[in-house]
Protein: Conserved protein of DIM6/NTAB family
Organism: Halobacteroides halobius
Amino acid sequence: MKEVSYDQYMQEATEALAKGAFLTVQANDEVNTMTIGWGSIGYIWGQPVFMVMVRGSRYTYQLIENSDEFTVSIPLQGKMKEELSFCGSKSGRDYDKFAECDLTALEGKEVDTPVIDGCDLHYECKIKFKQPMDKENLDQVVDEEWYAQEGYHTLYFGEIVTCYTDNE
């Protein structure tokens, strides 16, 4: 694996994120991964950040609330569709997603949370800020389109402490 700048593959990462990526969290010796399709890579507070969103109803939420880090592993070129589908539709409360999908957790380089083997791009992040969404500050059209059926997200801003690829 080769370390790369957080923004070297930003376009590819953003395009792939819309098709799914693995958000992995570890807390109290429990590890879970879930599929995310939303997120943002940027630069704030003088550092590169990856912002992820997790609904309070998700099992991952219980873990991330008890952690100070997370990883995002992104398969490029439409790889791992079945695994992303399973991890996005099944709960870690009921399934060991690693066993069910034959996923291999690789040790993080800078954080204790693992990354997912077989992905092309990995971001390791330390949480610097979190904020539950406030309905009063949300555009009504967005609220009606995305939050009519389920609860709101909490936003987690993680400093990208390392980024690396399997492609080089």
Summary: The chain has one domain: 2-165. DSSP finds five helices and ten strands in the chain.
